[in-house]
Amino acid sequence: MMTDNSNPDNVDATRKLGGEVIFHGPKFNDARNYAEELAVKNGYRYFHSANEPLLVAGVGTHTPELIESDPEIDAIIVPVGDESGSRGAAIVAETMSKDIKVIGAQSEMFPAAYKARKSGVHE
């Protein structure tokens, strides 16, 4: 499930990996809500992109490797999108060292997460 205005590179990559892309709505939550409806209707298991503890833990596994490879590290820059990566990195960094900052970065061409944070609405 993707928004009507999704990043074309993400759409292409999803299709190349064999995924079916269904577009729904202009905002992330529009697509997410529709995906949840389809999951209930069809008996599928819906995995939330930022609220699945095992998913967040899994994508955060790169962070201990970074910290162990350079104990003096003071910041980690992670891509921001669905937030599972940034959440995973932040949890691990805080657990291993209170002094490490996790900085989220997003494409200037597709700044949905940035705009949502800036407006106070996380969609």
> What are the segments in which pLDDT stays under 50 over at least 5 consecutive residues?
none
Q: So how many helices?
A: 6
Give the N-to-C terminal Cα separation: 14 Å
Biggest sheet statistics: 2 strands, parallel
Name the shape in a single word: globular
Order of helices and strands: HHHHEHEH
Count structural domains. Answer: 2
Query: What is the radius of gyration?
Result: 16 Å
The whole-number mean of residue pLDDT values reads 86
Beta percentage is 5-15%
Keywords: Lyase, Pyridoxal phosphate
GO molecular function: L-serine ammonia-lyase activity; threonine deaminase activity
Pfam families: PALP
Protein name: TVG1184036 protein
Q: Can you offer a commentary on this structure?
A:
This protein is mainly alpha-helical. It folds into two domains: 1-46, no CATH class; 49-118, no CATH class. It contains six helices and two strands, in the order H-H-H-H-E-H-E-H. It has a two-stranded parallel sheet with strand order 1-2. Strand 1, helix 5 (84-96) and strand 2 form a beta-alpha-beta unit. Helix 3 (53-59) packs across helix 5. The model has no long low-confidence stretch (mean pLDDT 86).
